[in-house]
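Figure caption, in words: inputs first, then the predicted bound structure.
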Amino acid sequence: MCGIIGYIGNKQALPILINGLRRLEYRGYDSAGIAVIEEEKGVRSKEKIVRVKAIGKIDELAKKVVGKDLIGTIGIAHTRWATHGGVTEVNAHPHTGCTDDLVIVHNGIIENYRELKEKYLAGHEIKSQTDTEILAHLIELFYKGDLLSAVREALSQVRGTYGLVVMHASEPNRLVAARLGSPLVIGVGEGEYYIASDTSPMLAHTRNVIFLDDGEIADIGLNKFEIFNVASEKINKDVNHIDWDEAQAQLSGFPHFMLKEIFAQPTVMQDAVRGRYNLEEGTAHLGGINMTVEEMHKVKRVILLACGTASYAAMIGKYAFERLAGISTEVDVASEFRYRDPIIDENTLVFGISQSGETADTLAALREAKRKGAFVRGIVNVVGSTIARETDGGTYIHAGPELAVASTKAYTNMAAVLLLYALQFGRLNRVSLATGQRLLTELRAIPEKMKQILEQSEKIKVLAEKYKNYKDFFFLGRGINFPVALEGSLKLKEISYIHSEAYPGGEMKHGPIALLSPDFPVFAIMTKNQLYDKMRSNVEEIKARKAPIVLIATEGDESAKELANDVIFVPPTMELIEPLLNTLPLQLFAYHTAVLLGRDVDRPRNLAKSVTVE
Ligand code: AGP
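Bound structure (2-deoxy-2-amino glucitol-6-phosphate present):
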């Protein structure tokens, strides 16, 4: 996700901003920029904002700035992790309106930026492909000499998420910041203030910070600041003293990036879905499909290509496409696909699903599918990645940079985007308006239900303490929960190094059950759905072999306690949406087990975050 740092005070802003950006590099970025209100002989000059941007690393920006001899004690800076628009200097922040008088840096997604552009900005020359620039033009449009009022009025028109900081040349002693859905922190120094996405860029200067909450706006001047709530009432907020070191600051207080990313799932799930459906029509609108309705109607086969965790998300897509769209769908592990003779024709739609967008096997398989004439689309996290560029359309999953090697938030976001695609195709023929609306309504409720599960993290840590010394595990699921079992098994394997295997529940009696013993615990997903009774029978077979059983069960299913040694309850939801919830306890179990075993959770042995070799 993007990084923001702003400064106003009595020191030169440039070094503070550049070094602050370096402290934000861990967030992942592809370009950076800075803006300073230049001073002449110690006086902040009006109408003189100098802006410098560069793609690539902070060093590239620093090289460009060196020659500028930028003197000024107020400025803002930004590292961009592209969401709308490619990785270009024009798309890098800070952005301006029609003039260079106003500059803005922003983290988040302005969902209705197209509507705002059409409604307010006719005749404005829009230079970039970003949603943020639209916001700059809007604030400039409403600017009548008071920056706070202009920001308030512009944000009243906005739908989406933002953490932003704005500066105007006509008010060279003022920064205005606003938060909705993207964190912002004010650092309170001696006669100076910092404003940033997290505390890491300010710890070298101050440990006294104020965390803005959603809907709040901060008006920061020389030696004073005011904070206003959603109702524009001035409020007082506690100043917190941070004793984190820098590494902890980058983790926002979490012990590992993996746990931070597990807990980010409710937020990034909203980003995956936001602006991509129409509840009134009961359908999804993923423009990236880049096909006419006629072409969509002609699709007779869908092939989902991916590796590892992404392939398990693909399996969820298989169930969704077949159930909702009635289209034959197969999942191919990419490294196998390219070496078999896949049957592909002009009515085949192939998705490449990849967090990094750089996985060599997935890329090679996609190229093979393209060569054979299929429609080829990407479902990718990293904007501008190779798979994103080489496919003829697709959708970014908006999970934000995933820094832990073990994929968590990207997995659930991939699954959500696949559900939306399946609905978009399903509403062409098979899916009724009511069903579509019910699915979308449930999808919108998922972030809150995810939070309910995440609240059980400490309870799941106790389970990990209980089971951490076992040497073998089974993970079982049926139907759409079989991919969940596969993902839970992979998570445990790849970060705790404990052996585990996943099977469809019905497969146990075909051999694996021979392994069961009191030393071979089994995780079974036995949530209330059409296969509940079948899964219950499988669990009873396992119980008869005296293997320890941990059940993932639906809240209220008290009978589960009779069958299992331990039960983790999850909220009820629609069967197709269950994986977005049922995976979370397994992510947490794997995480806590690995921590208790002293593993390098974020960088497990032998693994790379992106496997760019075959
Ligand atoms: C998942 O935790 C692993 N890191 C791995 O299986 C990963 O999902 C796989 O390598 C695919 O990566 P991608 O999504 O970047 O293509």
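The pocket of 2-deoxy-2-amino glucitol-6-phosphate is lined by residues 307-310, 354-356, 359, 362, 405-407, 494, 610-611 (CB under 6 Å).
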